Amino acid sequence: MRPRRVAAGAPRRADVTGPKAPVPTVDEARALLRRIAGALGPAERAIVAAQVESIVSVSGTAEYLDLHLEGDPPRLDWPEAPLHARGDAADAEGEPLGGFLVWMKTGLLDSIEFHVYTADSYTWPPLDAVEPRLRD
């Protein structure tokens, strides 16, 4: 289920469930999305790549990062739902840390959801710790 939007000034879930983490940058969001898109087929990957280049800003938290696109990039034929590619994150020993879902809206990238298996940290793991996969 997609996270609900909260009113301005209301605490976001990350504010009440775990330590605050730095908000990822546009470059970090773009790099993560490129990595996750690696699980897609060539045609979908090309469309997502064009949308990634259209991201001009991000807002929110490390747990729910809203993506702001500019221009009119090509759209996927995809409903308001998570993209069927995801990113699973593990630590250096291979223990699962959490994962990423990419939310779409009207065929465009909308947000990145980062879920963790412990409340230790909502800081995004290094990119090489994220394994792109197709969702079941």
Automatic annotation (TrEMBL):
Region (Disordered): 1-23
Ranges annotated as biased composition (Low complexity): 1-11
Protein's recorded name: Uncharacterized protein
Phylogenetic classification of the source organism: Bacteria, Bacillati, Actinomycetota, Actinomycetes, Micrococcales
